[in-house]
Amino acid sequence: MAKIIQMAVMLGSSKLGHGAFGFDERQADSTPVPQMKRELPTRKMCLEAFKRTHYDILIIGGGAVGSGCALDAATRGLKTALVEANDFGSGTSSKSSKLLHGGLRDLEQAISRLDVAAFRRVRCSLQERSHIGKLAPHLSQPVPILLPVHHWWQAPLYYMKLKIYHLMAPKATRSFQYLSADDALEVFPMLRRQELFGAFVFYEGQHDDARMCLSVALTAARYGADICNHMKVSRLIKNKDGNVAGAEAVDQLTGKKYSIRAKVVVNATGHMSDSLRKMEDSEAKPLCTRSWSSIIVMPRFYCPEEWASSTRTRPLGHTLVGSSDEPLNLPEQDTQPTETDVQSLLDCVKHFVTPNFDVRRCDVLAVWGGYKPLPVQSDTLHHTRFKNHVIQLGPRNMLSIVGGTWSSFRVLAEKTVNAAIRYGDLSPLRKESVTAESCKLDGASGWSPKMFIRLVQDFGMERDVAEHLSNTYGSNAFKVAVSADSSGKAWPIVGKRLHSEFPYIEAEVKQGVRDFACTLEDMVARRLRVAFLNVQVAEEILPQVANIMAKELNWSRDQIKKQIRQTRTFLNSQMGQLTKESASQMNIPIKMSVRQVRKFAGQFRQMDENNTGYVSIADCCRAMKTMGVKEVPVDLMHDVLRDIDVHAQGKVNLYEFLLLMSAIVQGNTEYLRYARLYLDHKKQMQGSNFPAVMQMERAGGGL
């Protein structure tokens, strides 16, 4: 069975709360439960604090684990600093599957190999999934996953594994159920009927990874941690004994250097951890290896609402399809997906959906990829195939954490801070971590699933906007609503949308600046998250968002242009349709004379008045009529667009336009079809990198 990770795009966000957390008093430490010390500080306030404070712990890396370490340390009363070279969660932490796995893959290994360590990891992952649900109930929720059964003998095996999985989970976890083939097709009509015996439905956790990471970091700041993004460590500071005693970081926005001193320095830089370890010890052996995973975003019709499958999921109206983690040797800064990645995932989707449905390249709305850090194979890790994490004290007393997932970030942060307290001889106010039971992220307190109704009733917001704000900012959604401008309409009363396709409003841009967004990329990628859903929409709203940010950050016109230019480059290279090799995918020769090419190219330029590089299909139809086509053959045009495999919905670029005109106006449809068949055959004969089957245990969501 082909396996691909598929997940629901949950664009939830975090809500930043107004005060104390409601905590459980059950903890080993008799010290009172911590209260938030302050309102959210500004970035400038944190920079000033770096100059005068000698910290207990400095964490380098603002991803899931690094932000988790900052929260754990701050809630224990330690003087904490956190720096991130880019933006919080800008690396792997914002490029996950959006699922909080309970460890179903580990359970497969545990059963087949009687691996006790794997059983422990499954139990830990299930417990941590529950803890994260308590930590941020507004950002995480259960999602049903449909697991197809293709052979009768698979049913009892899957039942046994799911039964064990459910018994190991906390009591409140929803149970699983079995569906017949007809019932499975009723809830998931896109599923391929051939050889379908039935399906199981079980539940996993789902969350918005970027907003979760940001919310963890911001909550740590409210507990007293000084946090700062766009602060790149240039060197480690060492004391007279040669041990690490801090770091020198450069503000990437101003170029100013800051010397941040601390008793313990934690390296939580993910797949970049070995680079920082080289600063500690130039002879350090590699501790981290990497695997690569690519994800494409597709329209909502690929996955039923509120459902996911072992290959696809969809939460906030989009479908995510992702590859299993594969080892890949690329430069550390190279996070650009390739066209090979995209086509591989599309081929896997075709394997699962009904053959009556065309899976096309134009359905890909966004593309991204990320590295997953893994510990290097060692004598202590060789016994298990799914290596988890390593916490290591370096020769100069820098603590490095490598590995982990979103399902384990909290417990890894707890272990890392425990190690920092032990090795650094720190004196926290609370010896035990409070993040498992007693802590909630800022915005979680006072939130309820029906809170959005108040936003509709009290502020006159549209329902989808109100739900988005509630599930993104939690109880702080009211702060965003208060700052929202009037729509100028009878309804809705407040909330100017940035784009009709999404529930994002202008007031969120102002809130995003308060939430440490420093660049236009920060805003569209990790505050609004639109770049991860639809690159074309993200590019369309860039000028509007940049102008709002300019007022908040006092950008000049030149700075606005620079931000737009840099963000477009980011969208095209790391998030968009212009994947590696996509420019070289023009494999089908255009069957036209030079004179005809010039004629049609001139027609294309006339229609493309704004120099976007695209013209709409409607424009193409009008052009056909001016060239003698009395009635546009809509069905034939559909087949031609499928054979061309256009890269965008509803529009074509110049190359695609020429192929379209060649096929319909010139009558070369058969040539186009045979050319496509030849290319597909050539790709298979060359042993291409488009796997039809992936190892089940390497896949992201299934057994």
From TrEMBL:
Q: Which cofactor does it need?
A: FAD
Location of this chain's protein in the cell: Mitochondrion
Query: What is the protein's name according to its record?
Result: Glycerol-3-phosphate dehydrogenase
- Give the record's pathway: Polyol metabolism; glycerol degradation
Broad class of the protein's primary localization:
mitochondrion
The UniProt entry, under InterPro entries, shows:
DAO_C, DAO_C_sf, EF-hand-dom_pair, EF_hand_dom, FAD-dep_OxRdtase, FAD/NAD-bd_sf, G3P_DH_FAD-dep
The UniProt entry's sequence similarity note says:
Belongs to the FAD-dependent glycerol-3-phosphate dehydrogenase family.
What Gene Ontology cellular component terms go with this record?
A: mitochondrion
Q: What is this enzyme's class at the first EC digit?
A: oxidoreductase
Q: What is its EC number?
A: 1.1.5.3
Q: Does this UniProt record's set of keywords contain Repeat?
A: yes
**Pfam families (alphabetical):** DAO, DAO_C
Determine if Cell membrane is one of this entry's keywords. Answer: no
